[in-house]
Amino acid sequence: MADSIHLPTPLTGTLDITADASPRLLPLQVVHDWLITVDHKKIGLMYIGYALIFLVIAGFEALLMRLQLAYPHATVVPPQVYNRLFTMHGTTMVFFVGMPILFGFANYLVPLMIGARDMAFPRLNAFSFWMSAFGGFLLYFSFIGGDGLYGAGSAPDIGWFAYAPLTARAFSRGHSTDYWTLSLLISGIGSIGTALNIVTTVISMRCPGMKLSRMPLLVWLNLVMSSMVFIAISPLTAAQIMLMVDRYLGGHFFDTQAGGSAVLWMHFFWIFGHPEVYVLVLPAFAFANEIIPVFSRKAIFGYPAMVAASVGIGFISLGVWAHHMFTVGMGAFGNAFFTLSTMLVGIPTGIKIFNWLATLWGGRIRFATPMLFCVGFLFQFLIAGLTGIMLSVAPLDWQLHNSYFVVAHFHYVLVGGILFTIFAAFYYWYPKMTGRMLSERLGKWHFWIFVFGFHLTFDLMHIPGLLGMPRWIYTYEPGRGWEIWNLLVSIGAIFQSVATLIFVFNMVWSYFYGEKAGNDPWDAWTLEWSTSSPPPVYNFARLPEVHSRRPLWDMKHPYDTDGMYE
Amino acid sequence: MSTIPMAVEPEAEWRTPYRGTVGMLCLIAAESAIFIIFVVAYIYYEGRSLSGPTPRQVLELPIFNTVCLLSSSLTIHFAVAALRKDNRSRFSLWLTLTIILGTIFLVGTGQEWYHLIHDYGLTLQTNLFGTTFYSLVGLHATHVIVGLIMLGATLVLAWTGRVHEEHAERFDVLSLYWHFVDAVWVVVFTVVYLLGRG
After folding, report:
1. Residues A417, A384: contact at Cβ < 8 Å?
2. Tell me: the pLDDT tens digits for A420-443?
3. Which of A4, A533, A555, B79 could join A435 via S-S bond, C-beta 3.0 to 4.6 A?
4. Which residues of A94-126 are buried (b: 16+ CB within 10 A; e: fewer)?
5. Given an 8 Å threshold on Cβ–Cβ distance, is A259 in contact with B45?
6. Which of B1, B2, B49 to mutate to test the interface with A (most CBs of A within 10 A)?
7. In angstroms, how far is CA B145 from the centroid of its own chain?
8. In A211-254, where do the E strands start and end?
9. Which residue among B2, B22, B49 places its CB closest to the CB of A200?
10. CB contact under 8 A, A5 and B132
11. Strand ranges in A408-537 using DSSP code E only, listed in sequence order
């Protein structure tokens, strides 16, 4: 009798009842269809596509910079252009690659994973996407329109954190800074809208039985991430409004000559800026949380601890921002506080790493491409975390602040941690999104070339930093011992570009010629694999009912369901 | 051992919170963060202006305004209650009263600003006090305007007979926003007028 109660409703087969013979549409009809869509899957894909385009653009900017720094006294780009390049590279990568790609996956996966037919507010979803997209276009329009009437140069050249007084009217003539601040203001509104949508979807749209304690960890982490967006992005929005008041209405917020404070901008920016790192890294953790168990053939180790650690990271990350400002002179108390709070982040992060390792331990590991990227992530994120702990020590930071050591550290987090899991997510969910597998052979090439290039670039980048090379310099003198390291770092960048090209080629090629995926190519356990690939517009013909953390496991093993052990 | 605990799971009573309320609470969280930054800037720059006028010289306590805005929280609460009981004429009455009280507040703010600009020459450009004062109070006033537009739209719909009991939950979401705007005013009043003048 008990068993019959445990029997979850059969999910596959019955769910996809589409008559799949939609008529061929004209190209313009297809475009129109995408422009007006409010379907969370299409919006998610648009987020991802948009982010990939900007990834290529910002990656190209990085390549130009590495070319300029490859040897001393290089003249590949003039100094002003170099300033624009690092500003645009940083701003683009954070706001128009990192955020949209993670929002894209969240948009696509969260409703599917909680058994919903769409997000809570589909039209708000479309609105938020187009706001973010418009922000990106506005930023890049500055190449054309930034001059204004002053002939003062095109794109913004103030660095991605735009310290005052560089942004003041007197020091940034023309409109480049206005494009920067407006585009961040607008995309910030989009981010808050999407975050609001994700939180509401998770809280209000869960299918019957999907209790908070049964949600996939990906959904949990996106819930934490979105809640952080309210507290992290909003201060940036407020600071951008203040900057606009200064620039357009003649206010004095960051005008030191009228008693304003440049340090206040630093505080406001990093109150956004540091939680932002966790806004980016939590979805990356989320991918690892889904992929590592499936390819270890074990349920995730320590589910409650993982949730608690994520929430803990969310809270702690709100109190660490000034570790970006040790060199400002905050006094002994401020330095000690932010050193300790920063080190505290290591505890929940460590819990996560141990839980992933424990999930791997004793598992029957399949080294498919998604898993390869996740294993790479585990090692690299550990190293990135360790250099982070080093930099949290105020005296060491005084030595290394604004050096290439710091640049290497945060690229280790952003590339070695986040980008690796994003690649893993692509290989893992591409079959769901398109119905075709990505080529494993090309995937392995992509992984190994990228790993080689990544380590060549970012391992070695620590060394010129230790030797005293500051960031944001467009060239350097020979004879300081920096030459060989910079050359190798630049060569690594070329390897990474080649690997990325293989990835792009794989995406395009597999879309047409890839192996058919079927509903559930990885033998996974979460609800998105219960519907067809790609899922129908309504996701689930009948809303599923959930009885445990792994609804698909229950369905595949009706006499050994997870519910019996929860 | 594996059989007992799951058998009585009350899956039939599956309910999740209303999405409008959750969404509005999220918006309020985000807006609160924006206001906190502006309040922090105001406090941080208090007394750091290099030239006059200072808050002590020019600001007066807007008691009447405050009473009006805060009592509008009460009237909108009555409006929600009336709509829940499907008492539509009473709903329109309370809603109209709310809008009038909100408008009085806005007009009061306008008079105060006129006074400051015209009589004391305090503008956004004058000093740090001007910059932070007009930004913070102006940001709040903007929210009042947005709220009044939404309340006004609701009133028009109510007059044309399109607001019914089933919309009570939605109107409740709007009332949440209005309560938030009032709560922000309590903070602004305390920081700018009570502490800032002292």
Report:
1. yes
2. 999 999 999 999 999 999 999 999
3. A533
4. bbbbbbbbbbbbbbbbbbbbbbbbbbbbbebbb
5. yes
6. B2
7. 9
8. none
9. B22
10. no
11. none
Chain A positions touching B27 (Cβ under 8 A) are 192, 196
CA proximity to A514, closest of A448, A449, A434, A433? A434
- Residue in chain A closest to B11 (alpha carbons) equals A209
Q: Which residues pair with A403 in a beta bridge?
A: A470
Task: Tell me if A469 sits within 8 A of A482, measured CB to CB.
Answer: yes
Taking the Cβ of residue B8 and every Cβ of chain A, the question of whether any pair is shorter than 8 Å is answered with no
Residues with Cβ within 8 Å of B2's Cβ and at least 6 positions away in sequence, in order, are: A2, A564, A565
3-state secondary structure of A403: strand
Residue pLDDT, tens place only, A491-516: 999 999 999 999 999 999 999 999 99
Residue B4's nearest CA partner among A208, A565, A558, A546 is A565
Distance CA B198, CA B194 (A): 7
C-alpha–C-alpha distance, residues A381 and B131, integer Å: 44
Q: Provide Rg for chain A, Cα atoms.
A: 24
The secondary structure of chain B, three-state, reads CCCCCCCCCCHHHCCCCCHHHHHHHHHHHHHHHHHHHHHHHHHHCCCCCCCCCCHHHHCCCCHHHHHHHHHHHHHHHHHHHHHHCCCHHHHHHHHHHHHHHHHHHHHHHHHHHHHHHHHHCCCCCCCHHHHHHHHHHHHHHHHHHHHHHHHHHHHHHHHCCCCCHHHHHHHHHHHHHHHHHHHHHHHHHHHHHHHCCC
Hey, are the CB atoms on B41 and A264 less than 8 Å from each other?
A: yes
Cβ atoms of residues A12 and A530 within 8 Å:
yes
Question: Which position has the token pair 């052979």?
Answer: A441
Contact state of A2 with B37 under an 8 Å Cβ cutoff: no
The backbone torsions φ and ψ at residue A188, rounded to the nearest 5 degrees and listed phi first, read: -65, -40
∠ CA B52-B58-B61, nearest 5°, is 145
Residues lower than pLDDT 70 in chain A: 1-22, 148-152, 566
Rounded distance, CA A242 to CA B171, Å? 33
Instruction: Tell me if chain B has a CB within 8 Å of the CB of A563.
Output: yes
Please give the DSSP secondary-structure letter assigned to residue A562. G
- pTM of the model as a whole: 0.93
| A285 HSE (CA, 13 A, CB side) | 33
Mean pLDDT of B35-49: 95
Q: Which residue has the tokens 């109150």?
A: A271
In whole angstroms, what is the distance from residue A457 CA to residue A498 CA?
Answer: 14
Contact flag A253-B29 (C-beta cutoff 8 Å):
no
CA dist., res. A411 & res. A420, Å (int): 12
* Tokens encoding A65: 């910079």
- What is the model's pLDDT at position A307? 97
Mean per-residue pLDDT for B32-44?
Answer: 97
Q: Is the ipTM of this complex over 0.90?
A: yes
CA distance B81 to chain A (A): 24
